[in-house]
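Known limitations

Structure tokens in this collection are predictions and should be treated as such. Users comparing against experimental data should check residue numbering before alignment. To illustrate the layout, the record for GH32 C-terminal domain-containing protein is reproduced below. The input appears on top and the generated tokens appear beneath it.
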Amino acid sequence: MKTTPWIKLCKGAALALAVSYGLTYCHTTKSKLTLEQKGDSLTVIHITYPANYILLPIEEEAMESQVLLDTGEATDTDMDIRLAQTKVDYFVPLALPAGAKTATVRVRNKSKDALCWKEIKLSDTFDTANTDKFRPVYHHTPLYGWMNDANGLVYKDGEYHLYFQYNPYGSKWGNMHWGHSVSRDLVHWEHLPPAIACDTLGHIFSGSSVVDKENVAGYGAGSILAFYTSASDKNGQNQCLAFSKDNGRTFTKYEKNPILCPSDGLKDFRDPKVFRYEPEDKWVMIVSADKEMRFYDSKNLKDWNYMSSFGEGYGVQPCQFECPDMVELPIDGEINRKKWALIVNVNPGCYFGGSATQYFTGNFDGTKFICDNQPNVTKWLDWGKDHYATVCFSNTSDRTVAIPWMSNWQYCNIVPTKQFRSANALPRELGLYTQDGELYLSAAPVAETKTLRKENKEIPSFTVSNDYHIDSLLTDNNGAYELALEITTGKAEIMGFSLFNDKGEKVDIYFNLPEKRLVMDRTKSGIVDFGKNSVPHEIEAHDRRKTTSINYIDDFALATWAPIKKENKYALDIFIDKCSVEIFLNGGKIAMTNLVFPSEPYNRMCFYSKGGTFNVDSFNAYRLGL
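Generated tokens:
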């Protein structure tokens, strides 16, 4: 990923920059801070000749304090920050006003004896170098801090804009901003300052972006319009608008926000997806509304009219439907035969517990979505445990590219990373295909991922009767590689392989042909114990996820599986990075995405067979890198 190692940020643009264990800082000699402590309820930090940043020490398990950069403006907003009480896990930077002679930061709810008051620093610079063992090599992550859902995905002027739910002030959920990265190839990402910051209306929750080519909103032809949910306990969840005239770098919030509120006062009303419906020359917005999706239309992108709803009683009925998307796709590549796919992210509801992505196929007439299937039919876009909040880029013409968040709400706040938390799974190209008279959504890694290949090790074909060992996949393996295999089943009933390292940590991937399953087992994949502390949703206190998964130990240590057709040949494309394994079967007809945390890279393989032999007809191991 392209990064700028030392970055200055303007006032209020709390950052896309990393600060962690190996912090390097440069203190301006004139700048000075003094503390005015008014009991445990309020501490005022007075700063003269401010440096670029005040570096805040964070303790992840500390209670949140409210930190306010006081500029005297009505838009000044508290940030909830876990200031260090007894130890410092890492630092986060808070940008100070550029060119000011003084600055004031007010901190509420932090005790006078907290360690943070001794460790707090002023700095003009800080190092964004990766210090985290499990930071991926080729997957998108924030430079530091917390990330969840991808937001506002849009393509314009040769750039893919990836906005995302972002907390600049710690590696746990909170203070939702829209973080921002851009790419020209969906592989190399440049980190930019956050595009939309939380404000007095609330957190900036998920949403979507469009290019207003015809200037229907009045901000100029080609403006990027962002639609997002403003969320707070005080104001509820309402849909808002912001516009950008500089190719998505900065946004101005619409002065008449919100543009859409729930007519029935619904509490969970969020994640607007806006798209163009050409047959009626209008725009459509889908909003998650509890356990259904509500459809609205507009001619000017500001005034929205209710049309219909869909979802009540369909598929998995979890606590809440979230992050909707809807795209029209050719069936089996036939341009003149199309259907709509409605993507619905659910939490909880995953087959194996926690969050996941289901979808429905059907017809949309500009007003209503009519599903092809009966309500009790559930279709999953991915059969792993770490695939959620999948949404698609807008303005990509005939191409449909989606990006998932690669984690699960059961344990996302406690995975063993500190400098950052969460990555995006690989961008995936979506398509519709038929199988046994049913319509399904495929998800294949975008073609651009082939540019990641830096070295190819071709392994001659072989037959597996019992065990077949490969003692070394790649020399100096840093944990980032791709395995492409073509397999002929023969008479085998179980055919698979273990990926493992010298410490015995392993991932098992195998076909159980009598049961028609593709399985990935991560129970012995490395660091798994944190799964004992995962927190299932209160409505998921049943045992179904334990019996549906294989080898269940806890909500992380388990095996996931996908239903497959019994065929003579299978093609597997498997992407491994420092903390993930993504499996794509037969061109993405089956996808399975799972996190792993090995103490060192898996660089050895053992193929095995039960009930007969199978052949590996071709096998290529590609070293991957940016």
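For this record: The radius of gyration is 25 Å. The helical segments are 116-119, 544-548. Please report discrepancies through the issue tracker.
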